[in-house]
Amino acid sequence: MNNLLVPAAFTAALKAALQDALSGKLSAKVTVGRPDEISEANRQVPSVNICLFQVEVGQPLRFVRDADSLTGTTQGSLGRGPWASLNLYYLFTFYGNEHRLEPPRLLNIVAPILNTGPGLSPKTIEDAVDDREYGDYVAPHGLAREIEAVRISPLALSEDEMSKFWSVFLHMPYRLSVAYLATNIFIEAE
Is residue 136 within 8 Å of residue 60, measured between CB atoms? Predict the structure, then answer.
């Protein structure tokens, strides 16, 4: 069963997947939070920050009794509903020494991970909430048992949209950033 911890579980899974990919490369770390929460000293350290900046709630869904549809789980049991779909909007910001081109080098490592395949594997999601720092906050969530994988796709923000986004963070200069959208995230009413 999915619940309202799903956005937190998915964010934790993203962090874990990126941290695993970056391990040993540029000694980079992955953080979660608003870009303006990153201290000036940490902005010089090679890192990627994940910011969940918007959640869109789709229409409520009720499903028919069909084990092959979204009503079922991977174990074949029927979902109870009502369900709602979520769209999660993320901003990935890259930090590090600009003279050594660390931010674009980090982007070069992260972008293929986010652009490959349908999304994060169920194992990655389970590992993120079982073995990582957020496990106590995000389990049980049911995200890894979804029939449809969460989809991650690049979000094209215009210069104007990106400028408006960064203007929210007063006293913070623009940093290399990319936006992504995660879809096929379902929550079930308790």
Answer: no
Mean pLDDT, 10 residues at a time, the chain of 190 residues: 69 86 84 85 87 82 44 50 80 93 94 76 68 57 59 86 78 85 75
| pTM reported for the whole predicted model | 0.79
d(CA 57, CA 35): 24
What the block records as the tokens of 128 is: 């993120």
Q: List, in sequence order, every residue forming a beta bridge with 89; answer none if it has no partner.
A: 54, 181
Cα separation of 123 and 110, whole Å?
A: 19
Alpha-carbon distance 50 to 36, whole Å?
12
Question: How many CA atoms does the CB half-sphere of 34 hold within 13 Å?
Answer: 10
Closest Cα to residue 6, out of 180, 106, 125?
125
CA distance 46 to 35: 14
Q: At 190, list the tokens.
A: 């308790």
Instruction: Please name the residues in contact with 24: beta carbons below 8 A apart, sequence gap of 6 or more.
Output: none
The CA-CA-CA angle for residues 125, 58, 155, to 5°, reads 65
